[in-house]
Design goal:
This protein is α+β, with helices and mostly antiparallel strands. The chain contains 11 helices and 12 strands.
C-alpha cells in the first residue's frame, strides 16, 4: 500500500462561547477553513479532491444534514467534490483524518480533504419527541452544547456522570492535586501567548469576522491566579473553569494525499501518517484513554516514546492530560509546547485537525522526525496519530 501524507493545514481562530464568532454559522466556519487550506496549495485543482471527510460532534442545529457537504458547496468547490460527516465526539476531525488517510493508503483516493467544525455557542436546545400526541405535562428543552442528554434509562448511572465529575474521579484515582492541575493550566496559557507573540500561529490561522487569534488565551494566568477559582463540580473538588478547556467555536482543515500527488497539489508534503491508534475504556475514565491509543499508534509506526520529539495532546482537562503524560513517562516539555486546549480552546469537532496542523508545524520548525497527536473522547474513547516529518 502507498502512504498518506499531510500537505497543508489551517484553522480559524477559536472563539469563546458567546464571543467574537457567536454570529458565525458552523457551516460558514467550516467553509472558511476549507478555503484557507486550499489557498495554501493554489496549484491544486479542487476538482482533483476525491473526497472530503468532515468531523462534527453535535449536528443538532445549523451543522445538520452533512455539514461537510454543506461546507464544500459554500466554499465554492465543484459540485462533483463529495463529502461526508463523521461523529466521534471530541475526536471527530482526527477521526476524519484517519479515515482519509486509510482511503489514500488503500488506493481509493489520491487527494482527500479532512477537517471538522463546532459552534458550541450556536448549538441549539432540543425537545424530546413525545411517544404519543398532545402530552399533558411540561417538556424540558435540553442543551446540545456539551455532554450527555436524552440518556437511555438502561445506561448505568455511573457511566453517565458529567464530564467534570468523571475527571474528579480520575484525579482521585491517580492522586493528581489541584496544584498540579493549576500549574499545568497556567503553562498552557503562557505557552500559547508566547507562541502567538512569536508568530508561530501566523501561518496556521486565518482571521474570521475580525478575530485574528484564539480568544480564550489569558496571558496573565498563573497558578496563584487560578488557585482562587472555585471548584466547578464538587464543593471540595479540584477541577475549575481555569484548569479545564472552555467552550468554543471554530473549524480546522487538513489536506492529505499520496506522495505522487505532490505533482497535482503543487507542493511537497510536510509529514507522513506513520501510525494510528484507537482505544476504549469505561466511559468515566475517557480522559485516560489516550494512553493506550498512543501506544497502539507507536507500535504500528514501529517506534517507541524515545523516538518522539513532540506531543500534541488535547487538554480537555488538566487532570486527564497529566494522567496521560505521567503514564507515558515522556518529558512534559515536549507536550503542547505551543499551548493547549485549556488556553487555545476546544471546539469539539475541530480540535483533532488543530492537533495535526500544530504537530506538523512543530516538527517542521524543530526538524525533529516523529510526533504524536492524541485526543480523549467522551463515552470512553481516544484516538492517536503518529506523524513523521518529511518537510
Amino acid at each position: 500500500m502507498t502512504s498518506a501524507f499531510l500537505y497543508a493545514a489551517s484553522r480559524t481562530p477559536f472563539g469563546r462561547f458567546g464571543g467574537a464568532l457567536a454570529g458565525v454559522r458552523p457551516d460558514d466556519l467550516a467553509a472558511t477553513a476549507i478555503t484557507a487550506t486550499l489557498a495554501r496549495t493554489p496549484d491544486l485543482d479542487p476538482a482533483a479532491i476525491a473526497d472530503v471527510v468532515w468531523g462534527c460532534a453535535n449536528q443538532a442545529g445549523e451543522d445538520n444534514r452533512n455539514v461537510g457537504r454543506m461546507a464544500v458547496l459554500l466554499a465554492g468547490l465543484p459540485v462533483s467534490v463529495p463529502a461526508t460527516t463523521v461523529n466521534r465526539l471530541c475526536g471527530s476531525s482526527l477521526d476524519a483524518a484517519i479515515i482519509g488517510s486509510r482511503a489514500i493508503e488503500s488506493g481509493d483516493a489520491d487527494v482527500v480533504l479532512t477537517g471538522g467544525v463546532e459552534s458550541m455557542t450556536r448549538a441549539p436546545w432540543v425537545l424530546p419527541k413525545p411517544s404519543r400526541a398532545f402530552p399533558a405535562g411540561n417538556v424540558t428543552a435540553v442543551s446540545t452544547t456539551l455532554g450527555w442528554r436524552l440518556v437511555n434509562e438502561r445506561m448505568p448511572k455511573d457511566w453517565t456522570v458529567s464530564l467534570g465529575e468523571a475527571n474528579e474521579l480520575l484525579a482521585e484515582k491517580f492522586a493528581i492535586s489541584r496544584e498540579r492541575q493549576d500549574e499545568f493550566a497556567a503553562r498552557s496559557h503562557q505557552l500559547a501567548e508566547a507562541a502567538w507573540s512569536a508568530g508561530f500561529y501566523a501561518d496556521l490561522v486565518v482571521p474570521v469576522e475580525g478575530l485574528s487569534r484564539d480568544e480564550s488565551i489569558r496571558a496573565g494566568s498563573g497558578p496563584e491566579t487560578l488557585s482562587g477559582l472555585k471548584p466547578s463540580f464538587r464543593p471540595d473538588g479540584t477541577i475549575t473553569a481555569g484548569n479545564a478547556s472552555p467552550l468554543n467555536d471554530g473549524a480546522s482543515a487538513v489536506l492529505l494525499g499520496t506522495e505522487a500527488a505532490a505533482g497535482v497539489i503543487g507542493t511537497a508534503p510536510l509529514a507522513r501518517i506513520a501510525g494510528r491508534g484507537v482505544s476504549a475504556v469505561e466511559p468515566p475514565m475517557f480522559g485516560y484513554a489516550p494512553v493506550e491509543a498512543a501506544e497502539r499508534a507507536l507500535r504500528l509506526a514501529g517506534i517507541g516514546w524515545p523516538d518522539v520529539a513532540a506531543v500534541e495532546l488535547n487538554e480537555a482537562f488538566a487532570v486527564q492530560s497529566l494522567a496521560c503524560v505521567d503514564a507515558w513517562g515522556v518529558d512534559p516539555g515536549i507536550v503542547n509546547a505551543k499551548g493547549g486546549a485549556i488556553a487555545l480552546g476546544h471546539p469539539l469537532g475541530a480540535s483533532g485537525g488543530r492537533l495535526l496542523g500544530t504537530l506538523a508545524a512543530r516538527l517542521r520548525e524543530s526538524g525533529d522526525r516523529y510526533g504524536v497527536a492524541a485526543i480523549c473522547i467522551g463515552v470512553g474513547q481516544a484516538l492517536a496519530v503518529v506523524l513523521e516529518n518529511v518537510g
